[in-house]
Amino acid sequence: MTTTGFDTTDRFRTSMDIAAFVFLVVGVVVTALIFWPWSDDVFVGPRFDALRIATAGGGIAAAIWIALERPALRWRLSDTSATLFLVLNVLAYALSVDRQTSLLGESMLQTGLVTVFAFAGAYAIARISVRSLSRLRVLFAAVSASATIAAAYGVVQIANIDPIWSDLPLGRVFSSLGQPNWLAAYLVVAIPLTTAWAIARTRPLERLAGFGGVILQTAVLFATLSRSGYAGIIAACIVGVAVTLTHGLRIPGSRKKLIAAAAAFLASAALVLASLSAVTPDVAPANIARRVASATDLEGFESQQYIALWKVGLAIAIDHPFTGTGQGTYAIMFPQYRDTVLDESMARYLSDFRPESAHNVYLSIAAAAGFAALAAYGILIVGTFAKHNSTPRGSIAMIDPAQGKNSTAAIFNFEHPNDPTHDRG
């Protein structure tokens, strides 16, 4: 049997499609877990090298697939905002006060234009390659697995059995991410995705593993002592409930069972934390409660430091509203604003430091690339939750064969519970 040119081309096209998705999945896992303790740049350098390699490989594979397949891709709100954000960042780089810094960013932070392109490439690969629920599940599984591994390593650190680092700075866990706030931010994103993956599982062992991962991730999130992480997970819960309600989804099970499941989840996470606090008092519930309470103490010295960084970031953005001062230039601009924006005592204290960012994602974007870039970023985040930005699919339903082979009584339609056979295609 001979192979035709059409068959060869078809197989090659399919392999490029699969390769793009594989690069995306591998990138998701590796960038969360990789670090190299034998180099000066232990965490950020290896992570962004892996991101760039995955983006380059996935981008080439996706480009070849598009050239061969010529798919009819729908242009979405998130695509517009992502493209606008990228264009505005290129403009900010072109008009930067220091193009060399803006190209790669601060040393050991790498928040420059190259990284912006890498993230934009990862977004494009995800848009092109994640075209089905099965691939979306695989992507969620990759996030769930890598986050659970990172959380498990966090437990190792808390238990003081980490073979690499003998102690935790200020008693705060950082795992493979290298910084407590970075770990918290990652877990805030991973926990909802792991929860969604666990809910979608039908096999008991898979569902148990998924919710076990959520419990472990939540416990380690609290162990980071990151106040922004605490605020983030509360916001994630609120958004999750809002999206579920507005999209007409309904999780099967009575209200009492759902409440009992939520209570069991919180109790399990608290039990994990209590067990860890017996080894490391820094993560004791009382200490976490004090950390949460300190977020409301705006007159405290730590809060005042952050407010000072915010003030400088806002001042830079106001003075450069259209294109900012360029990526990674906050540390360069800070001395020029420190003595005029801040009161004398705080300015004197911060003169001994070199703040690398405004300690706020939104102010950092505005200061680096302008308010229009900040608006594009905000639209990208909000637009992601729009119904038309979801993965193309029909209505989600579950069929119970025990209820009958051809009976509508066997169908549970998650989106249209009162109309089991409704399918929006």
Instruction: Using the CA coordinates, give the radius of gyration.
Output: 24 Å
Q: What does the main sheet amount to?
A: 2 strands, antiparallel
Instruction: Please work out how many helical segments DSSP would assign.
Output: 16
Ends apart, CA distance between termini: 39 Å
Short précis:
With 425 residues, the chain is mostly helical. It has helices spanning 5-33, 44-69, 77-94, 99-104, 113-129, 133-158, 180-200, 204-223, 227-246, 255-277, 285-294, 301-319, 330-341, 344-350, 361-369, 371-383, and strands at residues 397-399, 411-413. Helix 6 packs across helix 7 (180-200).
Overall description:
The protein is mostly helical and 425 residues long. The chain contains 16 helices and two strands. Strands 1-2 form a two-stranded antiparallel ribbon. Helix 2 crosses helix 5, helix 12 crosses helix 13 and helix 12 packs parallel to helix 15. The longest helix is centred in the N-terminal third of the chain and has 29 residues, at 5-33. It is globular, with a radius of gyration of 24 Å.
Outline the fold blueprint.
Elements: H1 5-33, H2 44-69, H3 77-94, H4 99-104, H5 113-129, H6 133-158, H7 180-200, H8 204-223, H9 227-246, H10 255-277, H11 285-294, H12 301-319, H13 330-341, H14 344-350, H15 361-369, H16 371-383, E1 397-399, E2 411-413
